[in-house]
Automatic annotation (TrEMBL):
<feature type="binding site">
    <location>
        <position position="95"/>
    </location>
    <ligand>
        <name>NAD(+)</name>
    </ligand>
</feature>
<keyword id="KW-0560">Oxidoreductase</keyword>
<feature type="binding site">
    <location>
        <position position="151"/>
    </location>
    <ligand>
        <name>substrate</name>
    </ligand>
</feature>
<dbReference type="Pfam" id="PF02866">
    <property type="entry name" value="Ldh_1_C"/>
</dbReference>
<feature type="binding site">
    <location>
        <position position="32"/>
    </location>
    <ligand>
        <name>NAD(+)</name>
    </ligand>
</feature>
<comment type="similarity">
    <text>Belongs to the LDH/MDH superfamily. MDH type 3 family.</text>
</comment>
<feature type="domain" description="Lactate/malate dehydrogenase N-terminal">
    <location>
        <begin position="1"/>
        <end position="142"/>
    </location>
</feature>
<dbReference type="InterPro" id="IPR001236">
    <property type="entry name" value="Lactate/malate_DH_N"/>
</dbReference>
<feature type="binding site">
    <location>
        <position position="88"/>
    </location>
    <ligand>
        <name>substrate</name>
    </ligand>
</feature>
<protein>
    <recommendedName>
        <fullName>Malate dehydrogenase</fullName>
        <ecNumber>1.1.1.37</ecNumber>
    </recommendedName>
</protein>
<keyword id="KW-0520">NAD</keyword>
<feature type="domain" description="Lactate/malate dehydrogenase C-terminal">
    <location>
        <begin position="147"/>
        <end position="301"/>
    </location>
</feature>
<dbReference type="InterPro" id="IPR015955">
    <property type="entry name" value="Lactate_DH/Glyco_Ohase_4_C"/>
</dbReference>
<feature type="binding site">
    <location>
        <begin position="118"/>
        <end position="120"/>
    </location>
    <ligand>
        <name>NAD(+)</name>
    </ligand>
</feature>
<comment type="function">
    <text>Catalyzes the reversible oxidation of malate to oxaloacetate.</text>
</comment>
<feature type="binding site">
    <location>
        <position position="82"/>
    </location>
    <ligand>
        <name>substrate</name>
    </ligand>
</feature>
<keyword id="KW-0816">Tricarboxylic acid cycle</keyword>
Length: 311
């Protein structure tokens, strides 16, 4: 199985590293526009093989899309990350042009591929990829909800003082500081509602910390995060390539689900060899429904901005 990752920067290279280390794909192609950069990252990752015991072939290329031919999955991480104080939405002006040309190039050599969108603002870039390529909606998947859910589970585990892998929880809605919706009502500690262990006040703090999880890391690091984002992409790619049919919150094109149409937004999906195999339209309460509608309005407004940027 072959995976191409466009953008060999922090997230792209980490994702290549995790995919190789875990043996998720037999071949990984890293592509970047910076001369020699992807080649260097690929070589560095390959030189871990004998110490960590993987056999994935990792190849780096400078803007040579012919080497990406027949990829089963293509991950798009090309573009600029935010700096402290910025929102993800502010990246739209530069990243929209990059993403549009990247997906066009990818499809020339891998017309049947499944695209995983990472570049921010991710919901808008997912929508852009869908509309500009005309690909069926099951083949364009935005990565954000899985990362936000990982952060949610981490903050819950810290509040509970219990291992994160015993905590389950999901974040839906837009992948933005004010648009994501951590579903605290449905979060559980090994099946037991977390509300039996944590006060409403603590749960609200966990939700607030989750929503600004990316901004907090950007403030600490000076650029946005990469370890958890890279691992989240690898998890998603694994579910596709190995047809695991995991339930993952992803940004996908909705047609009536959650009362929304014509946007890409984070909802629980079954992810398998065909990409998005099912969208789960779960029952939300009135408060969650209102938050989702508000989030969808914000996501839709960003899509409208694309019209002027790409005109
Ligand atoms: N959806 C999500 O959950 C997350 C999204 N992100 C987003 O992912 C993107 C990448 O972040 P980082 O890896 O930290 O940035 P980075 O700056 O480390 O890497 C980006 C890479 O893209 C390359 N690039 C730029 N234009 C290109 C083009 N036309 N073709 C090929 N490569 C090109 C650059 O040369 C650079 O190496 C950002 O937009 C960031 O906001 C980051 C973390 C999580
Ligand atoms: O915070 C950012 O800008 C990058 C990102 O999407 C995340 O880490 O969630």
């Amino acid at each position: 199985m072959k995976v191409t990752i466009v953008g060999a920067g922090n997230v792209g290279a980490t994702c290549a590293d995790v995919i190789s280390y875990r043996g998720i794909a037999s071949e990984v192609v890293l592509l970047d526009i910076k001369e020699g950069f992807a080649e260097g990252k690929a070589l560095d990752i390959m030189q871990c093989a004998t110490d960590t015991g993987f056999n994935t072939r990792v190849i780096g290329v400078t803007n040579d899309y012919s080497k990406t031919a027949n990829s089963d999955v293509v991950v798009v991480t090309s573009g600029i990350p935010r700096k402290p104080g910025m929102t993800r939405e502010e990246l739209i002006g530069i990243n929209a042009g990059i993403v549009k040309s990247v997906v066009e190039n990818i499809l020339k050599y891998s017309p049947e591929t499944i695209i995983v969108m990472v570049s921010n603002p991710m919901d808008t870039m997912t929508y852009l990829a869908l509309k500009s390529t005309g690909l069926p909606k099951n083949r364009i998947i935005g990565m954000g909800g899985i990362l936000d859910s990982s952060r949610f589970r981490t903050y819950l585990s810290l509040a509970l003082d219990k291992p994160a892998n015993d905590v389950s929880g999901m974040v839906i809605g837009g992948h933005g500081d004010t648009t994501m919706i951590p579903l605290t009502r449905l979060a559980s500690y090994n099946g037991i509602p977390v509300s039996q262990f944590l006060s409403e006040e603590v749960l609200q703090k966990v939700a607030a910390d989750t929503m600004v999880g990316g901004a907090t890391l950007t403030g600490l690091l000076g650029t946005s995060a990469w370890y958890a984002p890279g691992a989240s992409v690898a998890f998603l790619v694994d579910s596709i390539l190995n047809d695991q049919k995991r339930m993952i919150a992803c940004s996908v094109y909705v047609e009536g689900e959650y009362g929304q149409n014509d946007i890409c937004i984070g909802v629980p999906c079954i992810i398998g060899k065909n990409g998005v195999e099912e969208i789960l339209d779960i029952q939300l309460n009135d408060n969650e429904k209102a938050l989702f509608a508000k989030s969808a309005d914000a996501v839709r407004a960003m899509n409208d901005a694309l019209k002027t940027i790409l005109a």
